[in-house]
Amino acid sequence: MTNALEIRDLHVSIAGSHVLKGITFDVPEGGVTALLGRNGVGKTTTLRAVLGLVARTGDVRVLGTDTRGMATHHIVRLGIGYVPEDRDVFAGLSVAENLRLAERASEPDYDAVYALFPELKTRARQRAGSLSGGQQQMLSIARVLLNGWPLLLVDEPSKGLAPKLVTELAEALERVAASATILLVEQNLAVVARLAQRIVVLDHGDVVHQGATSDLGDALLTQQLLGVAGAS
Amino acid sequence: MSVILSLAFSGIALGAIYFLAASGLSLIYGLMDILNFAHGMFMTLGAYAGWDVASHLPISWGGVWLLVVEIVVSIVGGALAAAITELVLIRPLYGRPLAQVLVTIGLDLAVVALLLGGFGSNSLTLPVPLWTIEASRFGKVILPHADFIAIVAGLIVVVVLEWFLRRTRYGITIRAGVENREMVSALGIDVGRAFTLVFVIGGAMAGLAGLLYSVVFSGDLVSPLQGDSLLIFAFIVVVIGGLGSIRGSAVAGLIVGLVQDFANYYLGTHSGLAEFGNLSVVLLLAVVLEWRPRGLFGRTL
Amino acid sequence: MKSARVGLIVGACATLLAIVLPFIGLHIPWILPGVVDVVNSTGTLDVLALCFVFAGVALGYDVMFGYTGLLSLGVVMHFAAGVYVFDIALTDWHWPVFSALLLTAAVALFLGLVVGAVSLRVSGIAFTMVTLAFAQAFYFLIEDNPHGLTGGDDGLSLLSNRLPAFLSGAVSNTRNLYWVALGFLVVTGVVVWVVTESSTGHVFVAIRDNEQRVEVLGLRPFGFKLAAYTVSSLIASGGGVVYVLLIGTAVPSAVATTTLTLSIVIMVVLGGAASRWGAVAGGILYIYLQQYLVKVAAEPTFASLPAVLRVPLSQPQFLLGALFILFVLFVPGGLAGALLRIRLARARHKTIETTSS
């Protein structure tokens, strides 16, 4: 089984603070791997480091290619779709413009996008800044779907969404996972249990556990790792 | 009444020139976080380029074509200077915004000195078609043709710029980049190319602004120091309008142009207050900053 | 700390050397071409005095820019204020020197506090713009020649019948003016050293590095920033007074332009921002090079160079601007930064030596 993503001894320092202290893990191709941990342990930083958005030392191989020294836009073009925490849609642009900007493939798959998120079609002219949180999240995911990227980095997509929307979101991601590898950062353990096959747990900048999602069934372990009650 | 109309007209013309200078500065700051001091140099070079080419044309060239050539040359000159600046000096300093600002300061100083050395501090005269110096009478109001040119140029640029930013792929990229540069590159787009483009657009408009300033307000005189004095007003317009906002540059440009014009006229007749026209602009800046530190339009294009 | 002590000793020696310089009649070729190439000649002392003035101004500016992180482009306004208030008091109003000095100090303080307070209402780029705008307004004000006080574009000569004999008049007093300028630099150096070493100075640096953290600690940055601004502007005004004593005339194109502000920024960056001796070195180097280049351009042999070389070389501003660009590109941190890198490299080398032995 090949790995979509291989991380070896990744170190990141931000403003003098040593955030990632040499983490090592793999994301196998296909399915969903969840990156877990308490707030502030370095999950988002890991994703950003993979994308080259922060200075880092260590080895990162994306879809087989060593990305050392590569600029962010080159790394992305290897086949990564990024759904950031807080969505980061361009508020001043319309929905259609946001999507247009994201087009990288020669034939962007608008059909798939509108099939999954029909609202984006009806609201094409609307300013992205005036969308609701849930709609912005849909737009953020739609952006990466256009190009059929093989590897998706998704950062806390359920954050700030009402429970009904979270369910819709999980359904959408499930369908996406059928054709792409997803590295999912998520605090909502119900979503993780539903979507992910593997988990990687960070604590204080180190990897403290790697295994199957079913490990979360062990309440004691979950309490230890995450300080929260396990998913039922 | 006719005085007021005349003043309004020339104020708008001045505003148009400020808009040309300020919008480039605003874009560059909005996208790249750089205070481009070399903008003054782009303006001066635009005027000089226009002068240089025009004075080498055979005498038979007159009328509209002379002006057209000068305008085109000033735009190209400004754009070229900007492209070279961005590629040679700004790019290598990516990630060091203070150093980028400092480098533009050094460039401004150096090039102005070079022009002073080469051409002396005496002003050169732009060859212009006769009708640019003339004016037309509309009832009791006298409107100089040169002002028309500036206003028309400003309008054309506004339309073209709006079209570019709203309709083209690059324009959308730039608008997005002004909001969130990082996310743009996370979508796989080379932001560096957008940087160069924005610099070139800014430089082109600056070159035109420099030339028009000579024609409209400087009596067709071209001097090495004109860019810098215009630059400061351009900066003020940018801050009042809001850094990164084209709309802001347009509105603020108009306001500043009108205020300056009216103040210079009405206060200028009182001895000892002659320069208050310029001071009034500074006062305006202070007032706007007190009331709205982000400028009129904040950070949206 | 060893390096601090070394720095003090070097500084003290340099100061001593500077004090006795006017007595050294050494002939060193090429100090200043076209002038008698003697160390203590009038020409050399004049240039050195000017160097000292701007070294002091640059040092004062560094407190605001290098230490507190405020990029103000209005320092020239305070410099010009020192120049003009002193000049006007002496020449237009015929005040005695001491009163003129007091007035200048009062105005300088007032201006520093008021302009600083207004400008610091905004931060970052807007702050820089506001200071630039104020300085430009001041330039217009001077040029405008309100009530005939400033002499407009032509400037205002310092009428020296109220000046004490030892400061004015003929060539022999160049020496005295030289010592006054040196005195200014030394006093500025002491003041800046005290301020930056004090806890206030440490807050300045904290503000530069992380203003939010300072607020969280319960301190109000505004007061400190204003203090930095005021100190800088007072020093600049002081420099202005010495300047006008030295040069004898106040001309707006020489003392109130944006070009001068930018030159001061360049001086500080060349020497190394947040480095005290760096700012001094930068100021001395810049002015010295500028004067040197002007003299070189006046040499007869120079005129015979082809125009392509002659034109750029005759403009000191061009060479200095180009030098500055090269420094920013290749020597970030200025002279002080370069020296630090050399020191670090040597320390590393020593460590390698000791560990391998």
Low-confidence stretches of chain C: none
Helix % of chain C is: over 70%
Question: Whole-number radius of gyration of chain C?
Answer: 21 Å
Instruction: Order the strands across the largest sheet of chain B as they lie in space.
Output: 1-4
Helical percentage of chain B: over 70%
Strand tally of chain B is: 4
CATH architecture label name of chain C: Orthogonal Bundle
User: Secondary-structure element order of chain C, as H and E?
Assistant: HHHHHEHHHHEHHHHHH
Largest sheet of chain C: 2 strands, antiparallel
What's the mean pLDDT score of chain C?
Answer: 81
Number of domains of chain C: 1
**Poorly predicted regions of chain B:** none
Total strands of chain C: the figure is 2
Major pleated sheet of chain B: 2 strands, antiparallel
Which oligomeric state applies? heterotrimer
Total DSSP helices of chain B: 11
Report what the structure shows.
The complex is a heterotrimer of chains A (232), B (301) and C (357). Chain A has 232 residues and is α/β, with parallel strands linked by helices. Chain A has 9 helices and 10 strands. Chain A has a 6-stranded mixed beta sheet with strand order 6-7-8-3-9-10, sandwiched between helices. A 4-stranded antiparallel beta sheet of chain A has the order 2-1-4-5, covered by helices on one side. The mean pLDDT of chain A is 87. The longest helix of chain B is centred in the N-terminal third of the chain and has 31 residues, at 2-32. Chain B has one domain. Chain B is mainly alpha-helical. In chain B, strand 2 and strand 3 (141-144) form a beta hairpin. In chain B, the strands form 2 sheets. Chain B has a two-stranded antiparallel sheet with strand order 1-4. Chain B has a two-stranded antiparallel ribbon with strand order 2-3. In chain B, 74% of the residues lie in helices and 4% in strands. Chain C has one domain: ABC transporter involved in vitamin B12 uptake, BtuC (Orthogonal Bundle), CATH 1.10.3470. Helices cover 73% and strands 1% of the residues of chain C. Chain C has helices at residues 2-20, 42-67, 75-92, 97-119, 124-144, 174-197, 199-209, 211-216, 221-247, 252-255, 258-271, 276-298, 307-313, 316-330, 334-356; strands at residues 156-157, 249-250. Chains in contact: A-B, B-C. Chain A binds chain B through residues 51, 53, 71-73, 76-77, 82, 84, 88, 90-93, 97, 100-102, 104, 143, and chain B through 169, 172-173, 175-176, 179-180, 182-191, 300-301.
